[in-house]
Amino acid sequence: MNYVDGFVLAISKDKIDAYRAMAQDAGKIWMDHGALEYKECVLEDLSDPGFCLTFPKGFQAKDDEVIVFAYIVYKSREHRDEVNKKIHEDPRMNEMPKDMPFDMKRMCYGGFQTIVSY
């Protein structure tokens, strides 16, 4: 089954355009090196279902922030490692912004083994 790298982060609403531009560039690089999918998603449904913690509450998002949920899909963990090795060697990565449009200390990341897929 597939392997997924997942990310969740809070970003200032006034930096979403800069983030989108960076993510579009990054997505192209990942896809060029074999990722199966690359998605960057901005939280749109802010309703509180009442039975669980919402992303804004979990991230203690400020009023001027939105939550981004992103994921990259690979064939396997080994495939992920191969793709990431190529990405780190890609000269286009040197063109990425050095000053990220979000606080990296507030970003959550993990590599996930798929256990159910339809």
Give keywords.
four-stranded antiparallel sheet, globular, 4 strands, alpha+beta, Alpha-Beta Plaits, 118 residues, single chain, 3 helices
General description of the model:
This protein has 118 residues and is α+β, with helices and mostly antiparallel strands. It has one domain: 2-Layer Sandwich (Alpha-Beta Plaits), CATH 3.30.70.100. The chain has three helices and four strands. Strands 2-3-1-4 form a four-stranded antiparallel β-sheet. The radius of gyration is 15 Å and the shape is globular.
What's this model, at a glance?
This protein has 118 residues and is of the alpha+beta class. Helices cover 29% and strands 27% of the residues.
Q: Can you lay out the helices and strands and say which pair or pack?
A:
Blueprint: E1 3-12, H1 16-32, E2 37-42, H2 55-58, E3 65-74, H3 77-89, E4 108-113
Antiparallel strand pairs: 1-3, 1-4, 2-3
The helix content is 25-40%
Binned strand content: 25-35%
What distance lies between the first and last C-alpha atoms, to the nearest angstrom?
11 Å
Q: Give the strand order, joined by hyphens, for the main sheet.
A: 2-3-1-4
The overall pLDDT average reads 95
CATH topology: Alpha-Beta Plaits
Give, in order, the helices and strands: EHEHEHE
What is the radius of gyration computed over CA atoms, rounded to a whole number of angstroms?
15 Å
Query: What is the CATH C-level name?
Result: Alpha Beta
Total of helices: 3
The rough form would be described as globular
Query: What is the correct CATH architecture?
Result: 2-Layer Sandwich
**Total domain modules:** 1
